[in-house]
Write a structure and sequence with these properties.
heterotrimer; A: 431 residues; alpha/beta; Ubiquitin-like (UB roll); de novo design (two linked rop proteins); 3 domains; four-stranded parallel sheet; 17 helices; 9 strands; globular; B: 925 residues; Dimethylsulfoxide Reductase, domain 2; Barwin-like endoglucanases; seven-stranded mixed sheet; 26 helices; 35 strands; 25% helix; binds flavin mononucleotide; binds iron/sulfur cluster; binds FE2/S2 (inorganic) cluster; ubiquinone (chain C); NADH dehydrogenase (chain C)
């Protein structure tokens, strides 16, 4: 297993401070920046990244090079443009970006420089979730060191390209991770999503051309530029390229996160890396990629964790961070917990999400507490149907919320009816 | 034109609109909340869901929000689709989760868009069985009541208030299902258009506070089309009455004028009608006391007065054209006064001449909204013509629209257009002595005293047209400003220049007209707009007559035996010594008014007039639009229209010898109804010939019937009076209008626009029924035009000369003086004209007067003004940032009983205060 | 003494103005500015909303719309220390409800409340990104994971001792 390269995390030593500029450089850092700024045109960088088939690691899996290609081509000095790192990471069960932010913030800084150079953005922003205090300190340190050493600022490496990074610490709301809501938040307003068009690449932050990329996406860039697209493609085991940070939480022996070839089978991640279930617990089902993905049961364990395969299995790769439901934990309770989160984190802009999710939460709560009625199941199914399809709500928050509910209603139908007939949870969530 | 399929029916529609508009225009019932024709689409409520199919083979289709989807050629759309229906029903059900079930006692009940949409969407059974959340309400001031529990979070209120009207003291708070539309703290909503929340909110969160004081079932209200009497813009309104009392005013859509929005002065200014200051019986002065007398006795008294010498008449810029004309018909032509001071009259007449002769456009408010460069020269239109200023505010978005066009984003995609245009500049320039509400969106807001503003205007004119007069002694900064503004105006396709007579400056208006005229060399769409003070200022300017000074001179010469003053508070126009002179020189004063203005106790005879809500008449707005108002209330005798009093006076005259010069064509004593007055007026003064077309006459019938002014579900007239008598009374009648005062009569969505008394259509009980009355959303009404333009670009005749007839006088630069200040009138939203302060909610919003000085001036907490004709007047003083040196600003109508435009006055420290203390207090930043 | 009713001290105003300077428009600093106020006073009073709004060229109402929108901005007083106990899915699976009950009993308050001595406020929070060490909490700026009743007791005691 250790044979596979782990470019993203190679420089990260658990519980040690992150590399400083010099250490980072010794370990191969800044190579890519030198190469890009000195030898590559911005269009070349976009081309390399497009050929690498890097897909966004923020959840939606959109081709990174393709996303950049929509940015107007003027130079950074000619047009105001923004490159924004999405470090909001508020998806429950997800802690991959924190690993990168704490472990190697300079890698993100370098990734941002490369992305900014490619799209010719003069302004960089890291949108960091407010609860991430250690990452904030480390990022602040990394940015100021990079600035001091001339990696940020005017005329980097004498290339004529100028770029700097501003760190924004969020006030805390899940929806801020949605890229257009994130832009609204950066404008100092209530973070409600925006309609597209206009796409951010054309008219984003303060009406200027903007690109939002996930931390993990950006952290891949130094390696892609340094080693080339073919190398990156060779890292993946299936149709997708590169490595991916995978993780598991719940009642497994060794909850954690690992950098693995993208497309590693779920079973391998859970059994080999997370060490399998804790003694006395059996795996019942799991959410493969964060709270807003659909449940998969044991039968799906052999699915390869790449974008297409997971989708074929009926869920989404999402963040790649799995949450395990064991046989002694109540699935209704777990769904209630998830829907409470989604209801509370609705921005309040569109009706179905704002008023539908709280209804779902109350129904689940009634069922869990013993006052559920048979019709409640139909009500839940109706909500799953009406909120679950994209396009009915303003943004993808509500459809995300419905993924575990819709799949759970099918997978745990017996549990739901048992709750109703027993007037409460027969399992009572185990300690 | 494009064609799309709606549930299998082929519908033709306009390009560049969204599916929701297209469906509504096709006559379909599709529910919606967050979309509003003036606010565009944002896709928040998700109520307007329809099914769209990609082609004939597509049987599944996709749910889309109609308001967010452009109507495209060949689109296949279904409203009836089961899935779309289920979704819409679900959306309403979600909205009702927290909505109270208080319709029967809710002030919105009966005209609630949410009620209508609930029925339309088909939701009728409550399945949510958990508790509702509750909110605390806020005190939002004297206009608006707040009941947040009724909120369905459509976000219309904040979008209107902030994005459209430029207000900033109402916001969304909280998140998820706990969003709250209110303020950080309780407090009055300050924006001049707050009242529109009442109509924009689709449910009963924001309701009309004065109206709510008495509970009224909406379907029991009698309605009448009316015209606002509180400024010269001429917004169209509905007057609503019950139990013969005016209860409220609503916006009445006129696609060219006020469209969907009314200012708060207009909406809440009607309080004078029911105020204690109303006159309701004839009064004779006996033993120095006004004493009620029967009408007959009053007329006899007048007959005796008339014997004492010639009769003179003073009309009013707030009275109807017909009333002014009746007075003009009664008296000798040179004893007929417009009721304006010389200065005011010179200004209004000049405005009329400049507009009439302007070779370009005299834009409607709606046309102003799409002006792509605007110069406001020396007028605080946000206070003197609020609705006009709101139209200009919309013009500030033109550059954003152009950016959206370039990005191929439709203009109705409101939030998207705002994102795209967030960094575009407006092409609005404001030049004025004091800050104005529009400064915030202006590319440049330049502070200059009126004379310097005029000079800058002349300089701009000269930049645009080198043959125009040169401005001597122009400073370099001014020359640069002139050049910058001229460049932007010259590049515009549809430039607009706005000025007015707030500062009594002829030069300002001449400069403005010169600029607009020069711009017509580039484009015939170059527009000119001049703001006048009163609802019929333009009508009087067109009618003509002597200024007040002439009457005073004649009176002092002993040439007036009886003076008839109609609907004019002379104390607002004349200095106290002039009033004294007039009262002493005229043996008999007859006052005809509806409201007890200060001179009522000095009048020998007072006759109670009807208000705009009680009679019919015509007003000419500043853009030359003749519009008619109709009665919603039938006042008890002897209250009647002023022109009828004049007619009674004419009939009471002992013989015809009292009216020697009464024009032959008028037949004052014989007029039977308003239509005969109008006919005579048109004959006598041909400029008014067209006003006959402002609205259909009293003989108009629809389907052979009169028009009903109550809804067909009015609870019944016998019930309403049953505490007095159970007898069925015949409904009141009025010979001036084609309306029946009751629920009997015809009513149709394509009835003449000038005669629509309220809005109602099957399935549409709220004001949003309007879409059924429009030819297209936002377009003209199906019943044609309401009112008629008497002059406009379309009727331009011989308007091709680019030079004005006479060379204007360019004032010298203003030089601040050490001992005096140039006292400028501060325009105020409330109280700037005669009537609004009689309305209790507006009076509650008028702060006491103070004096504003530039930050450079030494400041005492209180200072004394020494005005000509008055004793010293001591006022609190505050600094006002931006005010030019040598200037002071105060609300004229509150400082002196009369005030005449800018004056040079002496300003001294309050003798009662110590020197220099309180320096910097009350600083405004 | 920390009182949020008074006006903002000059150093905070200067800091906020500096933040506003960094932005294309002052409003862009709204969250950062409120965080500055909160880091000094622990919460944001209406008076402070008004003052910050003025510094950022916003209306107090618009700024309050922002202040009341975000989870981590407190518009009501909180205790000297704030415990944010994760209530999201991984922590829930790992038994956070039981720990929450324990903590409530130990503190004598319900979630959302502050202890009578003003020392500790307990708030639920969304996933802290510490799921591999669930159940987790954030005490002021410090992340604690793998919680059990003992570590909780210990944590509360040490917070109480901190100034
Ligand atoms: C409700 C919601 C929450 C999201 N939260 C995050 C987040 O916390 N971090 C993130 O990187 N992307 C998040 N996304 C996805 C972003 O919208 C966006 O797709 C992503 O940042 C793009 O980056 P990528 O192309 O590098 O993946 C979220 C999306 C939705 C709909
Ligand atoms: S689905 Fe609607 S309410 Fe929910 S977060 Fe998105 S825009 Fe906001
Ligand atoms: S009217 Fe279309 S979403 Fe609200």
């Amino acid at each position: 297993m250790s044979a596979t390269p782990t470019p993203l995390t190679a420089m990260i030593t658990p519980s040690a401070p992150p590399p400083d500029c010099a250490t980072y450089e010794r370990a191969g850092g800044w190579q890519a920046t030198r190469k890009a700024l000195k030898t590559l045109a911005p269009a070349d960088v976009i081309d390399i990244v497009t050929r690498s088939k890097l897909r966004g690691r923020g959840g939606a899996g959109f081709g990174t090079g393709q996303k950049w290609s929509f940015v107007p081509k003027e130079l950074a000095s000619e047009r105001r443009k923004y490159l924004i790192a999405n470090a909001d990471e508020m998806e429950p069960g997800t802690f991959k970006d924190r690993w990168l932010l704490e472990g190697n913030p300079l890698q993100l800084v370098e990734g941002m420089i490369l992305a900014a150079y490619a799209i010719q953005a003069g302004h960089g922003i890291i949108f960091l979730r407010g609860e991430y205090h250690l990452p904030r300190k480390r990022l602040t340190q990394a940015i100021s060191e990079a600035r001091e050493k001339g990696w940020l600022g005017d005329n980097i490496l004498g290339s004529g390209f100028s770029f700097d990074i501003h760190l924004h610490s969020s006030g805390g709301r899940y929806i801020c991770g949605e890229e257009t809501a994130l832009l609204t938040a950066l404008e100092g307003r209530r973070a409600t999503p925006r309609s597209k068009p206009p796409f951010p690449q054309f008219s984003g932050l303060w009406g200027a051309s903007s690109v939002v990329n996930n931390v993990e996406t950006l952290s891949n860039l130094p390696h892609i530029i340094a080693n080339g697209p073919e190398w990156f493609i060779s890292l993946g085991t299936g149709p997708d390229s590169g490595t991916k940070l995978y993780g598991v939480s719940g009642r497994v022996r060794k909850p954690g996160a690992w950098e693995l070839p993208i497309g590693t089978p779920l079973r391998q991640i859970i059994e080999d890396y997370a060490g399998g279930m804790l003694p006395g617990y059996k795996l019942r089902a799991l959410l493969p990629g964060g709270a807003s993905t659909a449940f998969l049961d044991e039968a799906a364990l052999d699915v390869a964790m790449d974008y297409g395969s997971v989708e074929k299995a009926g869920s989404r790769l999402g963040t790649g961070m799995a949450i395990v439901l064991d046989d002694r934990t109540c699935p209704v309770g777990m769904i209630l917990n998830l829907e409470h989160f989604f209801a509370q984190e609705s921005c309040g802009w569109c009706t179905p999400c704002r008023d539908g999710l709280p209804w779902v939460e109350r129904l689940l709560s009634a069922i869990e507490e013993g006052s559920g009625e048979t019709e409640d199941i139909e009500q839940l199914a109706r909500h799953a149907r009406m909120l679950g399809t994209p396009g009915r709500t303003f943004c993808a928050h509500a459809p995300g919320a419905m993924a575990p509910l819709a799949s759970g209603l099918k997978l745990f139908a017996d549990d739901f009816s048992a709750h109703i007939s027993h007037h409460g949870c027969p399992l009572r969530h185990a300690a | 034109m494009i064609t799309f399929q709606l549930d299998g029916q082929s519908c033709s529609t306009r390009t560049d609109i969204n599916l929701l508009q297209a469906c509504l225009e096709a006559g379909a019932n599709l529910p919606y909340f967050c979309w509003h024709p003036e606010l565009g689409s944002v896709g928040a409520c998700r109520q307007c869901a329809v099914k769209q199919f990609s082609g004939p083979e597509d049987k599944t289709g996709r749910i889309v929000m109609a308001c967010m989807t452009p109507a495209t050629e060949g689109a296949l759309i279904s409203i009836d689709d089961a899935e779309a229906k289920e979704f819409r029903e679900g959306v309403i059900e979600w909205m009702m989760v927290n909505h109270p079930h208080d319709c029967p006692v809710c002030p919105e009940g009966g005209e609630c868009h949410l009620q209508d949409m609930t029925v339309m969407a088909g939701h009728n059974t409550r399945r949510y069985r958990f508790t509702k959340r509750t909110h605390r309400n806020q005190d939002l001031g004297p206009f608006i009541k707040h009941e947040m529990n009724r909120c369905i979070a459509c976000y219309r209120c904040v979008r209107f208030y902030r994005d459209y009207a430029g207000g900033d003291d109402l916001a969304v708070l909280g998140a998820h299902d706990n969003v709250y539309f209110g303020r950080a703290e309780d407090g009055t909503l300050e924006n001049a258009f707050s009242g529109n929340l009442v109509e924009l909110c689709p449910t009963g969160v924001f309701t009309d506070k004065p109206f709510s004081e008495t509970y009224t079932r909406k379907w029991d209200l009698r309605g009448a089309p009316s015209v606002c009497v509180h400024c010269a813009v001429g917004c169209n309104t509905f007057v609503n009455a019950r139990e013969e009392k005016v209860r409220r005013l609503l916006n009445r859509y006129n696609d060219e004028v006020n469209r969907y929005v009314l200012c708060d002065r207009g909406r809440f200014g009607h309080g004078f009608v029911n105020a204690a200051s109303r006159l309701n019986t004839p009064l004779c002065l006996s033993d120095e006391q006004p004493t009620p007398v029967p009408t007959q006795a009053a007329m006899a008294q007048f007959a005796r007065m008339a014997a004492s010498g010639p009769i003179a008449g003073i009309a009013s810029s707030r009275a109807s054209l017909e009333t002014c004309f009746s007075l003009r018909s009664l008296v000798d032509p040179d004893l007929f006064s417009t009721g304006q001071t010389q200065q005011e009259q010179t200004c209004t007449e000049l405005a009329y001449a400049l507009l009439r002769d302007h070779p370009g456009a005299i834009p409607t408010l709606h046309e102003m909204e799409s002006a792509d460069a605007v110069l406001i020269l020396g007028e605080d239109a946000s206070a003197t013509a609020p609705r006009l200023a709101l139209a200009v505010r919309q013009s500030g978005r033109q550059n954003a629209f152009l950016a959206a066009d370039a990005a191929k984003v439709p203009r109705w995609m409101d939030a998207a257009v705002r994102t795209i245009g967030s960094e575009t500049l407006s092409s609005l320039f404001v030049v004025s002595p004091a800050p104005t509400d529009l400064d915030g969106i202006a590319r440049d807001a330049i502070r200059a005293v009126p004379d310097n503003a005029a000079r800058l205007g002349f300089a701009i004119w000269h930049e645009l047209d080198p043959t125009a007069p040169t401005v001597p002694d122009l400073k370099e900064t001014e020359a640069e400003q002139a050049n910058r503004i001229a460049t932007v105006l010259a590049a515009a396709k549809k430039p607009l220049v706005v000025s007015g007579m707030q500062y009594g400056s002829i030069a300002l208006m001449q400069a403005a007209a010169g600029i607009a005229r020069a711009l017509t060399r580039n484009t015939s769409e170059a527009g000119l707009s001049l703001v006048l003070p009163d609802c019929n200022s333009m009508g009087l300017a067109m009618m003509g007559g002597a200024p007040l000074e002439t009457i005073i001179a004649r009176a002092k010469a002993g040439a007036i035996g009886t003076l008839i003053i109609i609907e004019n508070d002379l104390t607002r126009r004349l200095d106290p010594p002039e009033i004294v002179d007039l009262l002493e020189a005229v043996p008999n004063i007859v006052l005809i008014d509806h409201t007890a203005t200060p001179l009522w106790q000095n009048a020998n005879l007072v006759l109670p007039a009807a208000t705009f809500s009680e009679d019919t008449g015509t007003l000419i707005s500043q853009e030359g639009r003749a519009q008619r108002f109709f009665p919603a209330v039938f006042p008890p005798a002897p209250i009647q229209a002023s022109w009828r009093w004049v007619q009674d006076l004419a009939r009471a005259l002992p013989s015809k010898q009292g009216t020697p010069a009464s024009p032959a064509s008028t037949n004052l004593s014989e007029w039977k109804n308003l239509d005969e007055v109008i006919a005579d007026l048109g004959k006598e003064l041909p400029v008014f010939a067209k006003i006959i077309n402002a609205a259909p006459d009293a003989s108009y019938r629809l389907n052979g019937q009169k028009l009903r002014s109550q809804t067909y579900r009015a609870s019944g007239r016998t019930v309403i009076r049953s505490y007095i008598s159970v007898r069925d009374q015949p409904p009141p009648t009025n010979s001036d209008t084609p309306f029946s005062s009751s629920m009997e009569g015809a009513y149709r969505t394509d009835m003449p626009a000038a005669l629509v008394p309220h809005l109602h259509a099957p399935a549409w009980n709220s004001v949003q029924a309007l879409n059924r009355f429009q030819q297209e959303i936002g377009g003209p009404l199906r019943g044609g035009e309401a009112g008629i333009r008497l002059f406009s670009s379309a009727t331009a005749e011989g308007k091709d000369s680019v030079q004005p007839s006479s060379a204007p006088d360019i004032p010298p630069p203003f030089i601040p003086q050490p001992d005096t200040v140039l006292l400028l009138p501060e325009a105020r939203l409330f109280g700037g004209e005669e009537l609004s302060m009689f309305s209790p909610p507006l009076a509650a919003r008028a702060p006491p007067p103070d004096l504003r000085l530039p930050t450079s001036a030494a400041l005492q907490p209180r200072m004394t003004l020494h005005l000509k004709g008055y004793g010293p007047k001591t006022l609190p003083v505050r600094h006002l940032a931006g005010l030019p040196d040598g200037v002071a600003l105060c609300p004229p109508h509150m400082v002196a009983a009369a005030f005449r435009f800018p004056q040079i006055v002496r300003l001294t420290p309050d003798p009662a205060e110590g020197e220099g203390e309180g320096e910097g207090e009350g600083e405004e930043t | 003494m920390l009182t949020a009713d008074g006006t903002l001290p000059a150093d905070i105003k200067a800091e906020i103005l500096a933040l506003a300077q960094e932005e294309l428009h002052p409003q862009g600093a709204s969250v950062a500015a409120l965080q500055v106020v909160q880091s000094r006073f622990r919460w944001i009073s209406t008076q402070h909303v008004k003052e910050v709004a003025q510094l950022l060229d916003m209306s107090p109402d618009a700024l309050d719309g922002v202040a009341t929108y975000f989870n981590l901005l407190f518009r009501k007083p909180v205790g000297k220390h704030v415990i944010l106990l994760c209530d999201s899915v991984s922590c829930w699976v790992m038994g956070r409800d039981r720990l929450c009950a324990h903590l409530c009993k130990k503190l004598g308050i319900q979630p959302g409340e502050t202890t009578a001595d003003g020392a500790i406020t307990l708030l639920p929070t969304v996933c802290l990104g510490h799921c591999d060490h669930a159940p987790a909490l954030l005490a002021d700026e410090n992340l604690h994971g793998n919680l059990n009743t003992d570590t909780l007791d210990h944590l509360v005691d040490s917070l109480r001792e901190k100034p």
